[in-house]
Amino acid sequence: MVHFPLSIIHAHPLAKRLNRLLEEGKIPQDCIFYKFLENTTAFALIDPNSSSDFKWDEDLCESYDTIKYLGGQRTRNFIRGPGFIGTGKGGIKRFDTFADFNLGGPSSNTSKRSQAGYTTRSGIIKPHLQSFLKISKDPSSKAECIIDNALVQVIPAAVAMDGTALKPGLEFETRRKCVVGMLEDVSLEYVKAHPVPNGNEVKDNLVTSTNVLHVSAMDNGASMPVGVYYLPKCVSGEQIFNIIQEAVEAIQICERCLARQRSTQHIISHRDSNCSSICEHCLENSEVCADCAVQRQVSHIPSLRACSNCIADGAKCTRTVVLVVVSDCESCNK
């Protein structure tokens, strides 16, 4: 029989209290304090000379982003602390003591990597519109269709546009490396094209409000925001009409053509789409012509017809038709 020496060390009083709180359920695993303790202690034990699969909890990263949103970058930096000060970019990050930090936590770059995608451009957001179409045609949503046959599925919808005031100003966007806050992003190319800034031009192009477009099925079977438009201080009624018209035409692109269409910073435009369902003979006579009847089209209205791409591919065309547009009276409209 082989005997092994047994050594017992009394636990630290702090460890005893933490263990008691965990056993009594006073620090549940889904609370932010548990995730903070679990992440920071695991981070402190990482060996910089060996590989590690450690990853900061997304909820903890989001909480630090909330601190930054409410208190600013300085407040976030103060709570985390300097950490690996003096190591420089690419230096070995060795955790020596919590005294090098304040409370510790994820760095700003770590939080940025866990952030969701976003866009600073105006227009209809492609992933959001795709999600609306998928939700609407799902049987569980029970969304009613104007037309639903083997050729085309048309989902009636209403668009609501509401504005929110923004504090005007310019800010450097670290992820895209440009200055945002104007109708046109201030990139390096913009600065080269405008070497001498015009104060009045900058003032007239500052974004002061944002209009969010919300699409809802007529029976409320599906609903979600699909677009955003950033506006200056003064907007004419004609400009608002053009925005609504452009948004409606983009929303009515069919699902298959939408999937193929290229986007710029997640924004799509009907001008770049090849989704076409127009028949000049049907429009001129206000009825389905003989050729379209052979294709099993049931309407002469383009937004109620299957597009030519889906017909050529022998696929069912799923699309949204906007029946109602609701917008509040903007005080900036002149």
Oligomeric state of this protein: single chain
Tell me the Rg in angstroms. Answer: 28 Å
Mean of the pLDDT scores?
87
| Ends distance | 95 Å
Low-confidence stretches: none
Fraction of residues in helices?
Answer: 25-40%
Q: Return the domain count.
A: 2
What is the count of helical runs? 13
Q: Outline, from the CA principal axes?
A: extended
Describe the structure.
It is extended and about 95 Å long. The protein folds into two domains: 13-114, no CATH class; 123-168 and 207-327, no CATH class. It is built from 13 helices and nine strands. The model has no long low-confidence stretch (mean pLDDT 87). The protein is of the alpha+beta class and 334 residues long. Helix 3 (58-71) packs across helix 4 (73-80).
TL;DR of this structure?
The protein is 34% helix and 17% strand. It is an alpha+beta fold and 334 residues long. The chain has two domains: 13-114, no CATH class; 123-168 and 207-327, no CATH class.
